[in-house]
């Protein structure tokens, strides 16, 4: 079966750096997405990786290793507004999106 | 403002009621999706419409019935639901190309409670 694993919850301190990991086992691979979802709101697109390596976008970076079935989302200079759930999703060989259950990130002052 | 709107935002219904959820996208996309989101579970894809044709069903119970009258509007008709159907229902849209689709844009969701 197809599976996406990410930690259920993480806690970090304002101003610090946090890394949210995602491992996947899917039938083929056609890209990996990260989304942010604040409580009671819609998921919003953060990043897309299809080739190995690091994609940087401001305070957020996303890394992919296809050989290891592994990605991480790196958040720098954490702000209170970064408290949210972070969803990892992989597009399989049929271009279907397989979603992880999300990681709830709690930022403390 | 995400460009995808959903109404109502909250809905409480009894198991014998019939109701409909509405989604509208203002992004000019050609694909729309219905998802179910339950606490601490992955998003569950329910239906996909591409160019107004349904292309994915994912074995959703018949008490959920989708309708896509045009590329901007999507409905989810509900009848004789069960308490376990209580969840957040999310609508999304994307632009599909010949080699796959770009990122999906989500609406704010309808929080459904079945009593």
In short:
With 109 residues, chain A is mainly beta. Chain A is 0% helix and 57% strand.
| Quaternary structure | heterodimer
Number of strands of chain A: 11
The major sheet of chain A is characterized as: 6 strands, mixed
Mean pLDDT rating of chain B: 91
Q: What separation lies between the terminal Cα atoms of chain B?
A: 31 Å
Biggest sheet overview of chain B: 7 strands, mixed
Question: Which geometry of chain A do the CA atoms define?
Answer: globular
Helicity range of the residues of chain A? under 10%
Distance between the termini of chain A: 40 Å
Rg of chain B (CA only):
13 Å
Descriptive notes:
The complex is a heterodimer of chains A (109) and B (115). By secondary structure, chain A is an all-beta fold. Chain A contains no helices and eleven strands. Chain B has 115 residues and is mostly beta strands. Chain B has strands at residues 4-7, 10-13, 18-25, 31-37, 44-50, 53-56, 64-70, 73-79, 87-94, 96-97, 100-101, 105-106, 110-114. In chain B, strands 2, 4, 5, 6, 9, 12 and 13 form a seven-stranded mixed sheet that branches. In chain B, strands 1-3-8-7 form a four-stranded antiparallel sheet, with no helix packed on it. Chain B has a two-stranded antiparallel ribbon with strand order 10-11. In chain B, a hairpin with a 6-residue loop joins strand 4 (31-37) and strand 5 (44-50). Classes of the chains: A mainly beta (109), B mainly beta (115). The interface between A and B is medium-sized, with 23 and 18 residues.
């Amino acid at each position: 079966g197809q599976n996406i694993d990410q930690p259920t919850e993480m806690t970090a301190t304002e101003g610090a750096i946090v890394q949210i990991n995602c491992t996947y086992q899917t039938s083929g691979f056609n890209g990996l997405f990260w989304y942010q979802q604040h409580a009671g709101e819609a998921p919003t697109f953060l990043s897309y990786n299809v080739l190995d390596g690091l994609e940087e976008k401001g305070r957020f970076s996303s890394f992919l290793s296809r050989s290891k079935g592994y990605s991480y989302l790196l958040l720098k200079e954490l702000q209170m507004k970064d408290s949210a759930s972070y969803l990892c999703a992989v597009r399989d060989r049929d271009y279907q999106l397989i979603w992880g259950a999300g990681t709830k990130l709690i930022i403390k002052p | 403002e995400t460009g995808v709107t959903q109404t109502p935002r909250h809905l409480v219904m009894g198991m014998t009621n019939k109701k409909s959820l509405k989604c509208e996208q203002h992004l000019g996309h050609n694909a729309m999706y219905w998802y179910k989101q339950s606490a601490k579970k992955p998003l569950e894809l329910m239906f996909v419409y591409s160019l107004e044709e349904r292309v994915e069903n994912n074995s959703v119970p018949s008490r959920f019935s989708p309708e896509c009258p045009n590329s901007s509007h999507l409905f989810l008709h509900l009848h004789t639901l069960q308490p376990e159907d209580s969840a957040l229902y999310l609508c999304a849209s994307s632009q599909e190309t010949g080699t796959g689709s770009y990122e999906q844009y989500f609406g704010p969701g309808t929080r459904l409670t079945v009593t």
